[in-house]
Design brief:
The protein is α/β, with parallel strands linked by helices. About 40% of the residues lie in helices and about 15% in strands. The chain has two domains: about 220 residues, Aspartate Aminotransferase, domain 2; about 120 residues, Alpha-Beta Complex (Aspartate Aminotransferase, domain 1). Helix 4 links the parallel strand 2 and strand 3. The structure holds pyridoxal-5'-phosphate.
């Protein structure tokens, strides 16, 4: 079976973890500091702050920006649920607006229409590794005096006009096992603001700078040097990983004919966390797409669906004051999308097999 993801663990990762284990210093320490430094360099920011997950990176970023009860945060429904849950966890209200059909990313025109006096931030998600229309989004943020918190969990190294994901606003990344670089579990916050970086570090560690002196409310959002040892080695592989993903996407785009393939606009570097196609003439309940996936699985290719249910459709959100809304583009795409394996460890034979099976549909 050709799986949707395959974490790469080389000798260097194993060696780095062994070194940490043998040192006896397991908690967040110098391997984490080294990892943060490499991460900030890749994101073109002054600081990177390692966290326990992408979810907690988002949560800390919202807390450090003082977003809470009474505030609204505008975001996309076409994302992993962490994007929405982190807003709820700080007591703010997620305002979900529709996406662009072509990019799967939040539609700037919909953001503009959703701004109210309570809006505090825009939380764009660079879905699949493709940066949002940041010119338009930053223009809206500037005119309405809003913060930008990027959910760049899938987009490490992605660029728009030479600017990297995580450098437009406050960047939040995930290092979960299947992400483009990973540490098993983990996250990063990126910023070039010294005071903001310090605030994130304080929140990450119970508001503590001097041992057992607590200057503000914080929590344990730390990672460990065991995780960071893996992540730090992975950073040295990022460029090669990304080049391979880009080459794989180019091959699939060139050869796949049976479904609607993804397009990338001028000026963008897509890092292909996912390679997502759309099934043609799909039923709105997703059944056409689901049948296509079933067929592919029978023939040894295992696609993924990111995401089968747009966030605004989850019933539990009604308990948290998020109204039922109709977001037709997100709903339509949720029934059409399937992501094909694109990870850097695919062989040429596997790529050819993916093309063959998809074109047979
Ligand atoms: C993975 C992911 C997250 C959450 O990251 P975790 O490390 O799993 O907590 C948030 N947003 C998006 C878009 C993601 O893909």
């Amino acid at each position: 079976m050709i799986y949707i993801s395959k974490p790469y663990i080389g000798e260097e990762e194993k060696q780095a973890v062994l070194e940490v284990l043998e040192s006896g210093m397991l908690a967040q320490g110098k391997r984490t500091a080294e990892f943060e430094e490499k991460f900030a360099a890749v994101c073109q920011t002054k600081h990177a702050i390692a966290t326990s997950s992408g979810t907690t990176a988002l949560q800390i970023a919202l807390m450090a920006h003082d977003i809470g009860p009474g505030d609204e945060v505008i975001t996309t429904p076409f994302t992993f649920i962490a994007t929405v849950n982190c807003i709820l966890f700080v007591g703010a209200k997620p305002v979900l607006v529709d996406i662009e059909e072509e990019t799967y990313n939040i539609d700037p025109a919909q953001i503009e229409a959703a701004v109210t006096p309570r809006t505090k931030a825009i939380l764009p998600v660079h879905l699949y590794g493709y940066i949002c229309d940041m010119d338009a989004i930053m223009d809206i943020a500037k005119r309405h005096n809003l913060l930008i918190i990027e959910d760049a969990a899938q987009a490490v190294g992605a660029e728009y006009n030479g600017k990297r994901a995580g450098s437009f606003g406050t960047g939040c990344f995930s290092l979960y096992a299947t992400k483009n670089v990973m540490s098993g579990e983990g996250g990063m916050i990126t910023t070039s603001d010294d005071d903001f970086a310090h605030c994130c570090q304080m929140i990450r560690n119970h508001g503590m700078e001097r041992r057992y002196h607590h200057d503000m409310l914080g929590y344990n959002f730390r990672t460990s040097d065991i995780h960071s040892a893996i992540g730090s080695v992975q950073m040295d592989r990022l460029e090669a990983f990304t080049e391979k993903r880009i080459a794989n996407a180019a091959y699939l785009n060139e050869h796949i004919t049976g479904v609607i393939t993804p397009a990338v606009r001028e000026g963008y570097k897509h890092v292909w966390h996912q390679y997502t196609v759309r099934v043609r003439d799909a039923a709105s309940d997703g059944s056409t797409r689901d049948a296509a996936i079933e067929k592919l699985r029978e023939n040894g290719v295992a696609p993924g669906i990111f995401y089968p249910i747009p966030a605004h459709k989850h019933a539990y959100l009604r308990d948290y004051g998020v109204e039922e809304v109709s977001l037709p583009v997100a709903e339509k795409l949720a029934a059409e999308v399937m992501s094909l394996p694109i990870h850097p460890q695919l062989t040429q034979e596997e790529l050819a097999k993916i093309v063959e099976e998809v074109n047979k549909l």
